[in-house]
């Protein structure tokens, strides 16, 4: 009698297990046939039963079924904004149970990459519609799906900036830096956001210092750092730092250009002029040096003109013409520098505008009309 009972119990156990395995198999078959609603019902049953809830296959197909419902014209309405997260959690559990090299675990990376694309597309759609909170949420989820990919993090920073959430944007740029994405643009954007968010000078200077370690020739980062040195009465320290950098790298035109900028700020225009010329000697195509030399000469001409304009009539009759002639020489001196800067960076609007002003001052109408046409394209 005991033997009969044992046999019956064993049979029952086998029957229940088979039924539950059948639920997984049925889910797989329904998925294959495209009846995703039935596949979902079957697989959810399997995730709840003790015989199949710890199987990698169960959770892998749960992820697959939910994933294939996303965007499906028939079954997509059964999904919501949480569905991609359900898919991710299912795949992660499949790997946990099956191992990354198991039959189902090894299929997960390809599926995750597909999920990343799906979520990123959703984020971009929200982004294009300027729905910043939802765009950011999707970018964050995309980053969670593919932690090594920088695209979602970068666009999350863009969306946060567009949403005027500067502090949150900074956290995304910090994440990029932590990921090793240490481009000059990342440091530049972070500095600008810190300035917009009114971060402390120490915080901004810390970012600038880190950026210059990665990009020691960045003119933007050097110039911004100089602003903070000057703001905090550290001009001599800034100059000493520049001189040491130039001594170590005397052919670095960017360093000369930045030093010229610092001398301008100290109102040492003659010193700045000489340093800009040294920058050109080091690099005959240094845009900043040519542009700044043009500005220096043009401004000297404008200063002389202003003196003439402020004279009374009697004084002007005696000295005005000579001053106007002197101003004209400075405008003429500015033109070749601006023209070379324009040649180096033909799309730079500021250069074109300055050339237009100089040509107009000199009465060079044909040249002024030509550059005006380029400026207004």
UniProtKB/TrEMBL annotation:
TPR repeats: from-to residues: 253-286
Pfam entry (one): TPR_11
InterPro entries on file: TPR-like_helical_dom_sf, TPR_rpt, Ycf3
Keywords (A to Z) from UniProt: Repeat, Signal, TPR repeat
SUPFAM superfamilies (alphabetical): TPR-like
Signal peptide annotation: 1-19
Protein name per Swiss-Prot or TrEMBL: Tetratricopeptide repeat protein
Record organism: Pontibacter rugosus
